[in-house]
From TrEMBL:
The keyword Cytoplasm does not apply. Residues 36-102, 110-176, 185-251 form the HMA domain. Belongs to the cation transport ATPase (P-type) (TC 3.A.3) family. Type IB subfamily. This is P-type Cu(+) transporter. It comes from Acorus calamus (Sweet flag). It holds the Pfam family Hydrolase. It catalyses: Cu(+)(in) + ATP + H2O = Cu(+)(out) + ADP + phosphate + H(+). The chain crosses the membrane at residues 279-299, 319-338, 350-371, 383-401, 544-563, 583-604, 905-928, 934-954. The lineage of its organism: Eukaryota, Viridiplantae, Streptophyta, Embryophyta, Tracheophyta. It is found in: Membrane.
Amino acid sequence: MKETANGDLVVPLLESPESTTVTIPHPSLRRTKSTRTVMLKISGIKCATCATYIESMLGKLEGIESVSVSPIEGQAVIIYRPEFINAKRIKEAIENNNYQVDDFPDQDIAVCRLRIKGMACTSCSESIEQALLMADGVKKAVVGLALEEAKIHFDPNITDSNRLIEAIEDAGFGADLISSGDDMNKVHLKIEGLGSPEEASLIQSSLEAVEGVNHVEMDVVDSKVTITYDPDYTGPRSLIQCIQEVGHGRNFYRVSLYAPPRRRESEQQHETLVYRNQFLLSCLFSVPVVLFSMVLPMLHPLGNWLDYKVHNMLTIGMLLRLVLCTPVQFIVGWRFYLGSYHALKRGSTNMDVLVALGTNAAYFYSVYIVLKSVTSDSFEGQDFFETSAMLISFILLGKYLEVVAKGKTSDALAKLTDLAPDTAFLLNLDSDGNVVSEMEISTQLIQRNDILKIIPGAKVPVDGFVIRGQSYVNESMITGESRPIAKRPGDKVIGGTMNANGTLQVKATHVGSETALSQIVQLVEAAQLARAPVQKLADRISRFFVPAVVVAAFITWLGWFIPGEFGVYPRHWIPKAMDGFELALQFGISVLVVACPCALGLATPTAVMVATGKGASQGVLIKGGNALEKAHKVKIVVFDKTGTLTVGKPVVVSTTLFSSKSIQELCDVAAAAEADSEHPLAKAVVEHAKKLRQQYGINSNHLPEVKDFEVHPGAGVSGNVEGKRILVGNMRLMVACQVPMSSEVENYLTETEQLARTCVLVAIDGVIGGALAVTDPLKPEAESVVSFLRSMNISSILVTGDNWATANAIAKEVGIGTVFAETDPVGKAEKVKELQKKGLVVAMVGDGINDSPALVAADVGMAIGAGTDVAIEAADVVLIKSNLEDVITAIDLSRKTLSRIRLNYVWALGYNILGVPVAAGVLFPFTGIRLPPWLAGACMAASSLSVVCSSLLLQSYKKPLSHARDDVVAVADGYSNSV
């Protein structure tokens, strides 16, 4: 590394964002110990000797830096190292010596995020929350089922992340630490040349002593270190310098940045692979079971060999079904046993319990039939091994599809983070503000107050303000404003935005977690962790239904067994080759089997699968059942403007002349002047000129050459075209260049602004020759969509980052009454939350990055398909064709689907309500009709079949708005034919 006389770099600091080598000695940093202080109120101190004893006793504990005990006030002030000891252990040490700690206040509140494994339904997330809230020191816990994460607020003096992970594992789930504390400002470094654990320990101690360092995690094996820091006191380059100082005079350390692997992606891929393999393994055994039990016996004589007797009444078919079903029940289905065990251990029931009960009832009764057939030469019974095998296979298929869907919707946060550029140009200025040196560094190495150079076409790396230069910056990702904003010295810039044409020097003011982009990430993250307001109906029913069925089956068995033992009913009621116990057992098992949760479990997922598939074919991508579940309750739709209600691309809509020049001449000189500008309005003018040339039959798109081209930030452009001085811009440019403004021009400007259009004036040699009105046109379907929503009793609201005049004009044109303009991304999300606080279910429709916080904050977020990837990933519904009519389609499809799900539950529970009494033998004493287990299994299969067929009826769904349009066309055709 070469240096200047004052020690500054003159070559790039980074070779690449992933491999950063720094070998610069720098002056020592100010260092302090990383400690905490706790104040305790101690009773029982009678004299100075007691105080001295407590000080001595605590001073011997590892991690205690200092102890000061006041015998008069009975207070102790202890400074300690949190990595060795915490306040709770200090309190226990005092109490173990017969002193009482009366006041043990919550000194701090820390936050950690954990990755949760093994959640299957909302009852799982509730159980984890309860387990966490019961842990000592936990103040608040929020578990997100879709995100598979938990965010926990806790007192670090009482507990830590390791104990929280243990609490989750005790509840039967897995957990890994994502982040501990407010550690968004984190840097990952790899150290080359590290020779021994002692050197690693020395580096860790040195880093921990740096002021502003919160946590240091050292990986000695891989020679890596992760440092969490406070940007107010230090930064990544200072930390690298600290490591270099440790190696100075001993070893030469090469320090480089490294990107840690994204654990979540690898875990999702692994989970998807596990479910797929288990489903295929289950099918390998289940398909032959179905063939041997339901298909081949109906194909005579192909299936006759299955009826051959092996021993007594045991047939080849029975034996094959037993052998094939057993691996499915106990190997593939072992996960359901584990899930049931942990659920019952927590005192709750979930879908695992339902699946385990249903499959066990089917399997073990079938085993009983097999054993009875082996031991009897006259017994005839029907097994239903296929019920157990098929149920497990279908459940695993549903789980696999669910995991695949989750994997496609979990990248929103990663995409947001990736918006920031990988590298930036760091400048070193002298006392006069002149550039002494320039180096390209990774954005991860930027520290507060750094001076950065932003070249044309580059992204702004962090938040800051301009100290030199002028340019336009496209901030549409944050503000929603489609036009680039002029930037001058003193103006603020936002990280992730795009610099258009000029070079800027920017001073960094907000880095790491403080940037606007990071704030949006945190908003999206918080919204994704929030609990869905609607609970799963199947889970609610299962809490009461499963215990009730088990109790009913047990009572049924007792109700037949005890009277049979005492001869209450006639002996001839008992079928041949049976006794009273077996008859009672069959009645009890029939109750369990007929009430098996197959149909209950299929009621929702089959409808959701059909609806989402149908929606995708109609241009509406619905991300899972939660969106369908909530969309049918929507009462207010919040629309963004740019790119949502409007096309998102400015176009010239009218041209007015104020001189003898022709429209063609005016547009040609305007386009020539604007040809070198990157501004969207300039592009609209150039495109309009090209269309005019084609319209007038001019084949050439060559424009006159412009000389002395100059950009006037926030006003327009100027230049010489064919010897004439041309000005193209707004009124501000004309006034600055002393171009006279007639009353005709001023009236035209006023009329244009009232129509929410931008007026581009064109002056030739100091005289205004004409004007072009530029606007972002409305989508043709916008007005009809708002009107149709009103007919569905759904209100519409416009929330935009654009100015009030434009917003009001657009709202008036489409028929929206309520408008909120000049709103930033956080403000949009707040507006959504304000509406939700009124008890309203809100849908948000947007297309930009700036809409993503509101999209995830809303009950249903709908993203335009032509919008940004981040908006699409953050939303619950994606309108693939970018057609606003699909907003209505999504809501209407949700209503139809929820209605179908309710009907499915009627089918599922209807069979239970009718079948359970019959299975329990209510009709047997009077009619001799009973429901043997095999017939109960058939009824259960029939309920499942009816539920699936009911869901398949959603395939006939038609879009409501297009359907209404077709009806109008049909009526019009009929009228014309009659005329």
